[in-house]
Amino acid sequence: MDWLQIFNLTIGTLIDPITMAYILCAVGLSVHFGFTGLLNFGQAAFAAVGAYGMAIGVLTLKLPLLGAMGFGLLCVVMFALVLGIPTLRLRADYLAIVTIAAAEVFRYLMSTVGLSEVTGGSNGLSQFGYEFFTWNPIPQGTYVLGTLQFSANDLWLRIFAISLVIISATLVWLMMRSPWGRVLKGIREDEDAVRSLGKNVFSYKLQSLIIGGLFAGIGGQVFILAMSNVQPSAWVTNFTFTIWTVLLLGGAATIRGPIAGGLVFFVLLILTNEILAGLLNIGLLPFLTLPQIGQIRFVLIGLALMLLVIFRPQGMFGNKKEMRFNG
Amino acid sequence: MTEGVDLNQLRTLRTLRFGLILAALAVFFTALVGVTPANAATASVGTTFHSEDTVAEITVGGTVKNDGKGVEGVKLHVTGPGFDETATTDADGKWSLVVPTKAKYTVAIDLKSLPKGVGLRDPNVTERIADVSVTEKAAVLFPLGKDQRVVQSFSDQLIIRIFAGVNLGLLLAVASIGISLIFGTTGLSNFAHGEMLTFGALVGWLSAVVFGLPLIVAGLISVLATASLGWLQNRVVWRPLRNRRTGVNQMMIVSIGLGIVIRYLLLLAFDGNTKVLSGEYEAVVLGPINTTVTSLWSMILAAVTLIGVALFLTRTRLGKATRAVSDNAPLAAATGIDVERIITIVWVVAGALTGMAGLLYGLQFQASWLTGAQILLLLFAAVTLGGLGTSLGAAVGAMIIGLVVELSSIVLPVDLKYAAALIILILVLLFRPQGVLGKKQRIG
To answer: What is the pLDDT of residues B316-361, one digit of tens each?
Structure first.
């Protein structure tokens, strides 16, 4: 086994923009589920709406990238309103089914041939990110971090993504220690009690859905800037449930939960992958092939999700008292 | 609400810990910015989680030509393991699609998208196989010529769609009764239910195609296997969780995890290729409807099963006990019904029914490791539409969903037919959350 390569991959994962995109989505989900108790199973759609909004803003509406990002986030707000106004009055498990169904409907709409002039159909869209790299303040060249090497653009993308994670976490931290955040937590603990205090529970839930959705939208935009394309197949329900695993791993009702959860999750994924591949190379796993190792990772993700919810629903850092599934 | 005296202390501590994490990130961040430029060229770090998708682009494509000229705007529907997309030809008649995995894909040409008077040179071949299991590219050609088709009238089309809708509805009904019974008796929205359907289809394929057993024996084996799977997951996962008094929403997320685990274990065991279950493909023509012996038998079998389940639930002691547990478990227990025994029976019956549905689905539409996951939401739509927890309501809901899916393709593009069913699901939840047959008090 090549330990140096494993070490490199691990460090690379810790600052990877894709990791950061998942973390941003998980930060949004922590607002939804961790702090407000909303069972949102359609986080992939919030990310996808933000991402497609940005890509379509650049390519079809010919907006400058910053405007397109804003347009994407506006789309997220609209999506949250359309989804939230009718459904937030429903029972928690109904909300779960509606959000997952809405996410799938959005994905079907993005891949249908009739709309492919705008959405690119199943091939998706690309070449929307040129302007992003013109913002790059870092001089061209190759940069070395320990044993890793980055181009100026790689570095810029990573700095951008990590900054967004730090800003988002700070914002959520500020929001959740405000009176507004305490009302959200109150809704999670006992909706009727909050209602009896004269608070409009529905309005608070809607605000939570919008704000959490916006973080996911930003996450989706980082995701497609890093992938340099946006395809409907990326936003399947597995995307949502990976975010759930990340969040529950770190601790849903905490600020550092999504960040720590994301970093640990992806490092564990890399380590299991490399260790299994290493075992395969020295002939200890005779029944497996290399692509199958990638599939084993998903078995482990599912297993992690099950075991976390059963044995440690509060995650690595959470407080068990703060963990409610409204069940 | 139970936070007490040490609240302030706790908060300071948390703020402190959060500050530390921020500081650590900040240090990391500055370290990153402060790195020195160098010019050595080595491999840079790529995106790691998605690296398997970006190895090499695998494409399926081709050219649609008539009289040597490309035909624009022809739609081609490509399906394969976990893949279902549609491509349209450009001005030169060329089309291509990037596909996710190396496998065999089925390419179907949409006859409606052909220009007037143009048809396939061989009208019987509307589907061809694109094999990219070894190579990265495969081309599929559909030679065109003079249209030899008989144009279908609207009423014929309607009859055909209704027939297909009833067929799909019956399959969904058999599969969704299990979800409904489980929800009714245990409160669990089982997201791992689709995997039982996949399991039934794949075990059927294994017995019938790989081991060459007669179809009836293979069917019995797959029904027994899924019934055992139902029993096993209740025993190993769900009963212990009920004993721990785990909340229903928590169990729902556990079922999602279990679904992912089973799905990828099936992928490991059966690989990603679409499995063709060989049935009796002898054509049967009923008026405008072209169907096969297999489809007719499948519909009859599904209908008989549904009637059997209905009689079981309404006429037998066990069935009545099941409905009693569904209505009010503590009350049922107080009248002497062994609730855990009923729940075990429900899991076994649900497994058997779902496995049968999977086998029938596989016989008619083929099956892969993703089949169950792909129709899971349709099953939820059926159950919700009929009224959560009312088992016969699920059958009614399934028939409606089946018809909606098939009839929607008269007005909507084919690739949106599942979306139509899901929109119906959302609308029902908004306006009549108790479903068509449900009672209002069930929605809490």
So the answer is: 999 999 999 988 888 999 999 999 999 999 999 999 999 999 999 9
A101 touches B at CB < 8 Å:
yes
Torsion of CA A58, A62, A66, A69, to 10 degrees: -40
Partner residue opposite A101 with nearest CB, options B21, B267, B377: B377
Q: At residue B40, does pLDDT exceed 80? A: no
Residues of chain B contacting A292 with CB distance shorter than 8 Å = 268
Residue in A closest to B101 by C-alpha: A291
From the list B234, B242, B275, B250, the residue with the least C-alpha distance to B363 is B275
| Tokens, residue B314 | 């309404």
What ipTM is given for this predicted complex?
Answer: 0.88
Q: Which residues of A touch B13 (CB under 8 A)?
A: none
pLDDT in tens, B176-205: 999 999 998 998 989 999 999 999 999 999
Closest by Cβ to A310, choosing from B241, B429, B444: B241
A10 touches chain B (CB under 8 A): no
If you search the block for the tokens 């009545």, which residue do you land on? B320
pTM summary value: 0.80
The encoded tokens of residue A106 equal: 């959005």
User: Among B400, B383, B401, B399, which residue's Cα sits nearest to residue B438?
Assistant: B383
Query: What parts of chain A have a pLDDT lower than 70?
Result: 1, 323-327
Burial of A178 by CB count in 10 Å (0-12 exposed, 13-18 middle, 19+ buried)? exposed
Under the banding of pLDDT at 50, 70 and 90, the label for residue B219 is very high
Chain A nearest-CA residue for B443: A91
What is the C-alpha to C-alpha distance for residues A122 and A114, in angstroms, rounded to an integer? 11
Give residue B278's pLDDT.
66
Nearest Cα residue to A132 out of A109, A108, A110, A159: A159
Q: Inter-chain contact B419–A162, Cβ cutoff 8 Å?
A: no
Site from B15, B16, B49 to mutate, A interface, most A CB atoms within 10 angstroms: B49
Predicted confidence (pLDDT) at residue B412 exceeds the cutoff of 90: no
Task: Indicate the residue of A15, A109, A327 with minimum beta-carbon distance to B247.
Answer: A327
* Residue ranges with strand state E in A59-215: 125-126, 142-145, 148-151
3-state DSSP call for residue B83? strand
Cα distances from B319 to residues A309, B12, B190, B394, B396, in angstroms, run 33, 58, 21, 16, 19
| Per-residue pLDDT at B120 exceeds 90 | no
